[in-house]
Amino acid sequence: MLHIVACIKQVPDTKIIKMNPKTNTMDRSSAPAILNPYDAHAVEEAVRLRARYGGVVSVLTMGPPPAVKAIRKCIEIGADEGYMITDRAFAGADTLATSYALTKALEKIAQTRPIDLIICGKMTIDGDTGQVGPGIARRLDMPPLTSVNKVVEVDAEQRHAIVHRKLEDGYEVVRSTLPCLLSVEKEINEVPYSSLPNMLRAARYQPHIWAVADLPDIDKTQLGLKGSPTIVSSVWAPPKPQGGTMLEGAQEEQVARLLDILMARQELFAAASGGGAS
After folding, report:
1. pTM for this one?
2. Which among 53, 77, 70 has a CA at the least distance from the CA of 151?
3. Are 120 and 42 in contact (CB under 8 A)?
4. b/e map of 17-39 (b: 16 or more CB within 10 Å)?
5. Which residues contact 248 (CB under 8 A, 6 or more apart)?
6. For the segment 203-258, what is each residue's pLDDT rounded down to a tens digit?
7. Most buried pick, 23, 49, 171, 262, via CB within 10 A?
């Protein structure tokens, strides 16, 4: 029987979110909060592994109280248990402080039920760093397997897992000891519509909620802003793309005009780089 923990995050829907033109920061109130899409695939993969091998699927998140909604979404997908750490001391955490806090929560979970496998989404759509999963693995001294797009086997008795890791020109097959941590690609599975029983269970579900004081042997200097060496000096929205140049006239005239434009740009590039046109 496996105990699989999926680490998840509630994020703003970046398809809808707007930027504040005065502060150049994300206006999080402009978009609904959703379960990070990569994390949905992580939970779905955990549920599929439970179906193959038996066991329990837990989910863990760090966030403000409304992040309970993300845990309930995971229960809809099929997770068994949900855990959330929430406290003002966690506010402003970068990936280093986040991985530390989640590690402490994982250690507390493991005191009740040892963890065989941790699954994270490849990255979050609001940060795009992909650093939290490997950071957790490093702190727990377990192998991190990143960019996983297929889980071939998980053997709880022989204590190993075999996965495919996505590469630019294919994939590689990797065998790792258990416990280990996987960060998964979206293509690893398709997340189906939730079943009615899971939706009803999720609507009533109350996760385990812990504050800083509930976590074992925690160093408060490694939490939140205090524990975050990353500094964001400035944020700005990219400029809107300018309209292109419309070429008119006969086909031969358009081709000649296009060549003139390309040659002129090549000369400008060569001059800027210190070379000459060739």
Report:
1. 0.82
2. 53
3. yes
4. beeeeeeeebeeeebebbbbbbb
5. 254
6. 999 999 999 999 989 999 999 998 999 877 776 667 777 777 788 899 999 999 99
7. 49
Average pLDDT, integer, range 133-159: 96
Tokens of 40: 């949905």
pLDDT (tens digit per residue) in 179-214: 999 999 999 999 999 999 999 999 999 999 999 999
Question: For the range 13-21, what are the long-range contacts, defined as Cβ-Cβ under 8 Å and sequence gap of 24 or more?
Answer: 14/125, 14/126, 19/237, 21/237
The CB-side HSE value for 122 (13 A sphere, CA atoms) comes to 15
Q: In which residue are the tokens 């292109």 written?
A: 244
* Mean pLDDT computed over 65-88: 96
Distance CA 61, CA 57 (A): 14
Query: Cα angle vertex 132, ends 127, 135, to 5°?
Result: 145
- Can you tell me the distance from the alpha carbon of 33 to that of 219, in angstroms, rounded to the nearest whole number? 30
Instruction: Write out the two tokens for 14.
Output: 């970046």
What would the two tokens of residue 203 be?
């609507």
pLDDT at 211: 97
Q: By three-state DSSP, how is residue 58 classified?
A: strand
